[in-house]
Design a protein that fits this description.
This protein is α/β, with parallel strands linked by helices and about 400 residues long. Helix content is about 30%, strand content about 25%.
């Protein structure tokens, strides 16, 4: 944080999963929300803060005096002391940031944006603090900071170093990874060497990914599907977070969920089902998810269909064997591009491919890439995009 002016604290708070509670307990939530608002107002005022805005069940406050870190901790203490059982429990997530006083005395909008993003990344019961806030304010007595590392947020160029403010008197000190950070780890194979003979295919895959949220690359083993997918990841990584998931050895849907969580560095917690936890974690993320060696879980991958339906910014790329068809819930079917990469690089020039939303014609049905299983799938999922590749 710049040394210009005295620090101004920015605090955002929000009730986790409040929409679900309003739907289930509308009458009780009116009373609970009023009590929550009164509690927040009193604590913010006590610590020298001023509430600037309310959005839904959230609060935005600034602190030109006082300590927003102590305020955040007291909010969690009060939430913990109150009984919220009438609405199935109530958890608040809090984000704190700090910036210098502006020359004109107005609110620093970039600092506000950062504080809002920081709060959105937190889990219920958690206080997430930026390095600027940590430097500007004294840690509350008995508290400590758990380092969360350097994190990136959508729309914010500069990465932020974040910490979780914890206290022995709070009910929880350990939380899953922050929920809305951009994931920038490319855990795929080494792509330092250039890719030869696949420029056209690479361009086609990138073009399809820009239009469809589920794309499969289908072909016989050893023909470079994984290498092509890794190059796609390399091309996308500069503008889109990428996660490469190896499913080698995976045999069922549970192992698919586990492998995906491991690649995302997500730790399961609580009593809800693992797939529900992972989908909740990915819901606000922008992400290209590459599932390599997915043949063994074909037909058992409902998790991916559910994830695509629930997570609007996730795109999935699946390099798989020639007999692989990636099945998802038909009610939430997405356009699929099937690309037969089982073509030797040195084969003579081939004709251009054409795409159709209808069933493949007789030439494709006679091709080595069209299996009976694929035929059955096309009958039951006519809304999916089929590829016809005509050889010269």
């Amino acid at each position: 944080m710049s040394s210009r002016g005295s620090p101004v604290g920015y605090l955002f708070s929000d009730i986790e999963e409040s929409t679900e509670r309003w739907e289930k307990f509308p009458t009780q939530m009116q009373l609970a929300a009023a009590r929550h608002d009164s509690l927040i107002d009193e604590i913010v005022s006590r610590h020298g803060g001023v509430i600037q805005d309310r959005a839904g069940d959230g609060v935005f406050a600034t602190f030109r005096s006082g300590n927003p870190l102590q305020c955040a901790l007291d909010i969690q203490f009060e939430m913990q002391r109150n009984d919220w059982s009438a609405v199935g429990g109530l958890l608040v997530r809090v984000g704190v940031h700090a910036g210098p006083e502006t020359d004109n005395g107005h609110i620093d909008r970039p600092a506000v944006n950062r504080a809002s993003r920081i709060m959105s990344s937190a889990w219920g019961g958690q206080i997430v603090v930026s390095a600027d806030a940590r430097d500007a304010y004294a840690a509350p007595a008995g508290s400590e900071f758990n380092e969360l590392g350097v994190c990136r947020f959508k729309g914010i160029e500069e990465p932020l170093r974040l910490s979780s403010l914890v206290h022995a008197s709070l009910g929880r000190a350990e939380f899953p990874p922050l929920r809305s950070i951009l994931f920038h780890g490319l855990a795929g194979p080494n792509v330092s060497d250039p890719i030869y003979g696949r420029q056209r295919e690479l361009g086609e895959v990138l073009a399809r990914l820009s239009k469809h949220r589920l794309v499969t690359i289908v072909g016989h083993g050893g023909n470079g599907k994984t290498r092509l997918a890794a190059q796609v990841a390399e091309e996308c990584a500069a503008k889109l977070p990428v996660c490469f998931v190896s499913l080698e050895g995976a045999a069922n849907a549970d192992q698919l969920v586990s492998a995906t969580a491991g690649a995302l560095r997500f730790t399961f917690h609580g009593a809800s089902r693992p797939e529900e936890q992972l989908i909740a974690y990915m819901r606000e993320k922008q992400l290209l998810l590459i599932l390599d060696n997915a043949e063994a879980i074909a037909g058992e991958a409902q998790f991916i269909g559910d994830a695509i339906a629930a997570c609007p910014q996730i795109t999935v790329l699946v390099p798989a064997g020639s007999r692989f068809v990636f099945l998802t819930n038909r009610r939430s079917a997405f356009p699929v591009w099937r690309y037969p990469v089982a073509i030797p690089v040195k084969r003579p020039a081939r004709r251009r491919c054409s795409f159709s939303s209808t069933k493949p014609d007789s030439r494709m049905r006679a091709s080595p890439y069209h299996s009976p299983r694929l035929k059955r799938f096309e009958k039951s999922a006519s809304s999916l995009t089929a590829l016809r590749w005509r050889f010269g």
